[in-house]
Amino acid sequence: MIRFYYHPTPNPAKVALLLEEVGLAYELVPIDTSKGEQHTAAFRSINPNGKVPAIVDTEGPGGKETRVFDSGAILLYLAEKTGRLLGAPEQRGELLSWLFFIGSGMGPFSGQAVHFQHAAPEKLAYAINRYRREVERHYEVLDTHLKDRSFIVGDNFTIADISAWGWLDR
User: Fold this and answer.
1) Is 70 exposed, middle or buried (0-12, 13-18, 19+ CB in 10 A)?
2) Separation between Cα atoms, residue 120 and residue 109, nearest integer Å
3) Tell me, what's the pLDDT at 166?
4) Considering only CA atoms, which of 16, 164, 12, 19 is closest in space to residue 97?
5) Chain-centroid distance, C-alpha 114
6) How many other β-carbons are positioned within 10 Å of the β-carbon of residue 140?
7) What integer best gives the mean pLDDT of the chain?
């Protein structure tokens, strides 16, 4: 059983999509980040970084309980656990490249753009423009890559598509 620590934001949405796609049984554990529940000692024992999503796989490798945090790590872990949505073995390098591109670029810059545009107590034109331009650049890279193809990696739906969807859906 997968215990899935969740709040309705882009990164947990990716994990929710993967869990549904592969049909793994899971228990949803809501974490209200607006109330700071991600900073409790109980949750920090699952994710020391104090962010959602996180999972605990009660049937991890060797039958041992395993915690996994960060959406990219969770997607990769669950895809490997089920043997699904990984693409062909010869596409492994490309799959990892796109996962890291989304996880270290598109996702964080999108989050910062939203923060500085909508949540920051002070509207800082430099920050708003900086993050918006970088988000636009990341989306241009992905858009150019997808120009003549249906999926990010290969000819089938993979965790790279799921990872991008978390932000593209917004």
Assistant:
1) middle
2) 15
3) 83
4) 164
5) 16
6) 10
7) 96
Quote the percentage of the chain above a pLDDT of 70: 99
DSSP per-residue codes, 90-158: GGHHHHHHHHHHIIIIIHHHHHHHHIIIII-SS--HHHHHHHHHHHHHHHHHHHHHTTT-SSSSTTS--
Q: Which residue(s) pair with 66 in the sheet?
A: 57
CB-based contact 152:145 (threshold 8 Å): yes
Q: Which two tokens stand for residue 128?
A: 């708003």
141: closest CA among 76, 133, 42?
A: 133
State the DSSP code for 48: T
CA angle 8, 12, 15 (to 5 degrees): 135
Which pairs count as long-range contacts for 114-121, CB under 8 Å and 24+ apart, including other chains? 114/170
Judged against a pLDDT cut of 80, whether residue 128 lies above it is answered with yes
**Which residue type occupies 81?**
K
For residues 141 and 77, the answer to whether their CB atoms sit within 8 Å is no
Q: Give the Å distances, CA to CA, from 103 to 1, 31, 58, 73, 89.
A: 26, 21, 26, 9, 21
What confidence tens digit (pLDDT) does each residue in 24-59 have?
Answer: 999 999 999 999 999 999 999 999 999 999 999 999
C-alpha 10/C-alpha 135 separation (Å) is: 15
